[in-house]
Amino acid sequence: MTEERATDGFLEEVVDRCVERLAKGESLDAVLASYPGHAAELRAILAPARVLMTAPVPAPGRAAQSMALNSMLSAVQAAQARPGARNFVLLWLGSLKARPLAYQMLAITGAALVFGGVTLGAAAATGSTPTPVRRILGISADSQHKVVLKGTIAALSNDALTLRVDGAAAMDLRTIALAPSTTFTRGARRIASGDLRIGDVVEVDAAQSGDRIEARVVRARDDDAPAAGATNAAGDDGAGAERSPAATSGTQVGGARDGTGTPGSKPGDERTPAPGATTRPAETPVPGGDDGRPHDGAPTPGSTAKPADPKGDRTPEATSAANATEQPQATRSAEATPKPEQTKTPEPTETRRSGSESSRTTTATPDS
Amino acid sequence: MDESGEPQNAGLRMGEAAAPEPRPFEREEDLAAALASLEPRAWRQLFQEHHQRVYNYAYVRTGNAADADDIAANVFIEAVRGIDRFQYRGAPVAAWLFRIAHNETVDHLKRRKRTETTSLEHPEAAEGLLARDGFGTSDDMRDVSDALGKLKQEHRDVLMLRLVEGRSVNETATLLGKTQGAVKVMQMRALKALRARLDK
After folding, report:
1. CA A329/CA A332 separation, integer angstroms
2. In total, how many domains does chain A have?
3. What is the interface pTM, i.e. ipTM, of the complex?
């Protein structure tokens, strides 16, 4: 091989060629013979290279290799189980570190605008912050307020009860929806929803979300439980104590579903009967009912033959807006209960309940 | 040194001789992202492609197969633990892996040095320790290995790839994220630096 002149920048090429030849198995002397003018310099450089190239490196043992692979995969699994290891936001923020400052600023500003816009837009549209946003911000997803209402049951249906708030005027009624999860107690006993009676004095733990109040626990006072078959239609304040002809005849009291009920009920909302929607003729003995009330689903004599509520867990609800409007006597019964337009529920005075919960506890008291 | 011309480092090309494994992540950035996401496939690929190289490096530095096995295993475990801090900036993942390998090897050598110092109080034990070294009593290899460990990272990498693993300039350039010209310059400088270390 002819000698090549190793100038600056070209010496690297010569060394590389020498390395290639050594790797092919040529001896160092044979390689250096091609560059006699630089043999000494090249020998000094290539001698340790030759040592490295001839290092007798054995292959790793298969067992050790397999163990190493398993150890690594176990470490991967352990890392996956670490909380937050795959947190998208953190990963994204971490990846920004490798970007130029201008890019970082732009990306963060853009993300803030998009995030803020979505949050505000959704909040404006729905009235509440979207759940994913609440999760990211660590805000409690519970937007309901806890309320405690005390009073007398003025009306009762499958899925709602109307409560005359203690101390309030006759028109101060609250309609409280009953959920399947609602629990009922009388004294220390747990009772079924059907065991409640009009006139029962109850305390209701409820959750208020917007206009809707949903009962969680309904506690009836044991000693005030009215005798079976002698229940006043309107509770213990005397209002509405007169027996309603409609009730006695089984005819439904008007206004049950006319959508003009208490605050909180919306027009057409069938879940919240209006005040005075006495859906159960409490004083009418009913066959099969040892407490003066019919068995579930049993039709009340004299009722307008409206079959039992599809849910079938209450007295036959002959409640019908049509009946109510067709039968004038229904309005007489309604005298015992406030007229819808007169119904005015006092603004609840709020008392903050101390504790970790951010929810409000509202004790309903009448305005004086 | 062997001047017979017969290549003796047959183990160096074992990784190359193995059947090619499918590469789920062809692009380096995809592999880096998948590693960061702790995808087992990505980690398996990293292991299959680099375990031999890490082992070779550890062996050249320690001269002991068992030590090289331990170091190679620890390198990948440390890589998993440190992936949260890894930022892909265009450099190959292998370069990051070799930094870990270097650190692990240095730590291992420090620990071994302490052990050897203790063992020297018992000549028989020290003799046994040297005997199980693959390098035996080859002073040349020991000196070169020690000098290699004191080089700059990029110099060490290029010498490992070109001389120990027998990679071509093109492969080395790809693995290091450099041009072929840059690899040749680095190789030249690395060899000079190695010589300088040996002369000290």
Report:
1. 5
2. 3
3. 0.72
* CB contact set of B185 (below 8 Å; sequence gap of 6+): A12
**A contacts of B53 (beta carbons < 8 Å):** none
- Least CB–CB distance from A57: residue in B4, B60, B185: B60
Tokens, residue A230? 């002698």
Domain boundaries of chain B, sorted by first residue:
24-136, 138-200
Question: Alpha-carbon distance A104 to A67, whole Å?
Answer: 42
Per-residue pLDDT of chain A (368 residues; tens, 9 = 90+): 444 444 557 788 899 999 989 888 888 899 999 998 888 889 998 988 888 888 777 888 889 999 999 999 999 998 887 655 456 677 777 777 778 888 888 988 898 888 888 878 877 776 666 656 665 555 544 456 777 888 888 888 888 888 887 655 555 678 888 888 888 888 888 888 888 888 888 888 888 776 778 888 888 887 654 444 333 333 333 333 333 333 333 333 333 333 333 333 333 333 333 333 333 333 333 333 334 333 343 333 333 333 334 343 443 333 333 343 334 343 333 333 444 444 444 444 333 333 333 333 333 333 33
Shortest distance between the Cα of B123 and any Cα of chain A, in A, equals 27
Check if the beta carbon of residue B79 is closer than 8 Å to that of residue B42: no
Q: Which residues of A touch B81 (CB under 8 A)?
A: 75, 79
* A226 and A342 fall within a common domain: yes
Q: Would an 8 Å CB–CB cutoff place A188 in contact with chain B? A: no
Structure tokens at A296: 């579930």
Closest Cα in chain A, distance from residue B121 (Å): 30
Domain made up of B24-136: CATH architecture: Orthogonal Bundle (1.10)
pTM: 0.42
Is the CB of A33 inside 8 Å of chain B's CB atoms?
no
Alpha carbon of A32: minimum distance to chain B alpha carbons (Å): 13
Q: Best of B53, B137, B186, B191 to disrupt the A interface by mutation (most A CBs within 10 Å)? A: B191
Helix (H) / strand (E) element for A181: namely strand A173-186
